[in-house]
Amino acid sequence: MSDQDIRGVSVKKGEPVDRALKRLKTKLDTEGILEEMRRRRAFESPTQRKIRKMRTAPKRHKVRWRYVSAGQEAKAEEAAAARAAAQA
What we know:
- By secondary structure, the protein is mainly alpha-helical.
- It has 4 helices and no strands.
- The radius of gyration is 22 Å and the shape is elongated.
- The chain starts with 16 loop residues before the first helix and ends with a helix.
- The model has no long low-confidence stretch (mean pLDDT about 85).
- This is Small ribosomal subunit protein bS21.
- One of its GO terms (cellular component) is ribosome.
- Keywords: Ribonucleoprotein, Ribosomal protein.
- Belongs to the bacterial ribosomal protein bS21 family.
């Protein structure tokens, strides 16, 4: 196993353990490990899975569309122009 496979934090000299624990929890939360662990704890029906995915979709899409390349922007402008021409 490489060092990247092991998730953890090192306690710095003089640092309280609770602060290191908070850093660990934050790290696990940002990586989505805690959410996945909670999700796998019990059976999830297909309907519940669909509802969960629909609930998290806006967050995923917000991150996806935050960074728009020049090509994507040009394509969006072309599509808007085509819609305007079709309506006129």
